[in-house]
Amino acid sequence: MIICSCQSICDTDINAAIDWMRAADPETLITPGKIYHALGKKADCGGCMPLFLQTMRGNPNLEVPPELRALRPAPEKGTRYEGRSQGH
Asked: Rounded distance, CA 79 to CA 87, Å?
């Protein structure tokens, strides 16, 4: 499926780039910019970015490693604490 019509990038291109980057360096931070660069392309209008990100998130090589999951406890339901001091 075509994801970025400006640069002719399809979902298989994005997944291949993610798989290649993860195989080359398992700890690398994978961003849309790095994927464009790996494919030898540049982002143009940005209209594809929501679908681009959705495609990225669907790749199993983009999951958070198990040792990094739950490092910070999830906030309790109903609380509005956002990490700011209470005086703000």
From this structure: 16
Question: 40 in the Ramachandran plot: left (φ > 0), alpha (ψ -120 to 50) or beta?
Answer: left
- pLDDT tens-digit series, residues 1-58: 999 998 999 999 999 999 999 999 988 889 999 999 999 999 888 899 999 999 999 9
User: Is 71 domain-assigned?
Assistant: no
Whether 85 is covered by a domain: the verdict is: no
End-to-end CA distance of the chain: 47
Q: How many domains does the chain have?
A: 1
CATH for 34 = 1.10.10
What predicted TM-score, i.e. pTM, was given to this entire model? 0.73
